[in-house]
Amino acid sequence: xxxxxxxxxxxxxxxxxxxxxxxxxxxxxxxxxxxxxxxxxxxxxxxxxxxxxxxxxxxxxxxxxxxxxxxxxxxxxxxxxxxxxxxxxxxxxxxxxxxxxxxxxxxxxxxxxxxxxxxxx
Length: 121
Prior knowledge:
The chain has a seven-stranded mixed beta sheet. It is about 10% helix and about 35% strand. It has two helices and nine strands. The chain has helices at about 5-10, 65-75, and strands spanning about 15, 25-30, 50, 50-55, 75-80, 90-95, 100-105, 105-110, 115-120. The radius of gyration is 14 Å and the shape is globular.
């Protein structure tokens, strides 16, 4: 199985477990990598991104500092809703490289949740 094949099968709503087997949350967005992506400014205002309209008060995706956002766009990522906390606005990003495997409806990561990229609030 190629390293990109598991990522291509991921769908919004799948459960995510970290390397220790702990439930992290669910996939709420994903983006395939674009090796030529270097735009750190985000999309034009009003263009839907990950279910949000950029420029309408919602952050562009990925919602991280510019150099890291560019890297995530080039590699590809999944956005994970952190279901372990009562707040529903905490999210993590895992790169396509950090996807270890898929098992049914569960994405298994190669890192612990403490090592994942945390979205800006």
